[in-house]
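Propose amino acids for all 223 sites.
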C-alpha cells in the first residue's frame, strides 16, 4: 500500500514538473518573441530618424543587402545581418549599417550607423545596451544628445587620428566617470566608416530602374 502511494506521488510530481517546464518554456518563447518584436520596432524607428521619409523614395525596410562575410568580424555581426539602402530615383544615397561594439563597460552595444554617399555620417543610433544608468546610458538619445555629435563627421573631417575620445587625444567628449562606453562607440563608428570607404563602389553602385527611367527596347532608336 505504501509502495503504491509513493509511486502515485512520484507520478504526480513528475507530471507537475513536466507541466511546469512546459509552461516556463512557452513563457520564455513568448517573452523572446516580444523582446525580438520590440527590438525590431526600435530599429525601424531609428532607421527613419537617421534617414527620414522625405529624403528617400524607396521602401527602406525592404531594400536590403547582406553584410559581406568579409566584414562580419569587423562589425561584430552574424550572417543574418543586413545593410539598409536609401535611394532617390534609383540611386543609393545612403546606407544604414548595423554594428556591435563588443567592448562596452557592461557588454555589447548594438547600433546602426547611417553613412551618406560622400562618406559622412548621416546619424548613429544605439539599439541595445546594458550600460550603467546615469553614466554610460548617455549614449542613448533618449538620455542625452551625445550621439548626435557624429552627424556630418567622416574619416577626413576630423582626420582619422582624431577619432578618439578626448581622454585619448581625440575630439569626442567622454562622460564623467564613464569613458569606456563612449570610447567603444566611437571606435565602432570609425570601423563602420572604414568598411564603407574600403567598399564604396560595391556598396553604392547597385542601381534600380525607376518609373522615369524606362529600359530601351532592343532595336529601338533614340536620339
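Proposal:
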Amino acid at each position: 500500500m505504501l509502495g503504491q502511494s509513493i509511486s502515485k506521488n512520484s507520478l504526480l510530481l513528475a507530471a507537475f514538473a513536466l507541466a511546469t517546464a512546459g509552461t516556463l518554456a512557452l513563457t520564455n518563447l513568448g517573452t523572446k518573441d516580444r523582446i525580438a518584436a520590440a527590438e525590431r520596432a526600435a530599429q525601424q524607428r531609428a532607421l527613419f530618424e537617421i534617414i527620414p521619409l522625405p529624403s528617400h523614395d524607396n521602401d527602406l525596410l525592404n531594400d536590403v543587402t547582406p553584410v559581406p562575410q568579409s566584414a562580419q568580424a569587423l562589425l561584430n555581426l552574424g550572417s543574418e545581418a543586413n545593410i539598409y539602402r536609401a535611394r532617390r530615383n534609383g540611386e543609393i544615397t545612403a546606407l544604414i549599417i548595423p554594428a556591435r561594439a563588443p567592448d562596452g563597460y557592461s557588454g555589447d552595444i548594438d547600433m546602426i550607423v547611417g553613412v551618406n554617399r560622400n562618406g559622412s555620417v548621416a546619424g548613429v543610433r544605439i539599439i541595445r545596451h546594458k550600460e550603467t544608468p546615469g553614466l554610460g546610458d548617455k549614449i542613448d538619445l533618449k538620455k542625452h544628445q551625445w550621439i548626435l555629435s557624429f552627424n556630418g563627421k567622416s574619416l577626413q573631417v576630423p582626420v582619422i587620428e582624431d577619432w578618439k575620445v578626448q581622454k585619448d587625444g581625440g575630439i569626442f567628449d567622454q562622460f564623467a566617470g564613464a569613458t569606456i562606453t563612449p570610447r567603444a562607440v566611437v571606435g565602432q563608428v570609425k570601423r563602420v566608416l572604414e568598411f564603407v570607404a574600403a567598399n564604396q563602389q560595391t556598396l553604392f553602385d547597385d542601381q534600380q530602374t525607376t518609373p522615369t527611367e524606362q529600359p530601351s527596347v532592343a532595336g529601338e532608336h533614340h536620339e
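Helices lie at 2-50, 69-75, 180-198, 200-204. The chain has one domain: 48-204.
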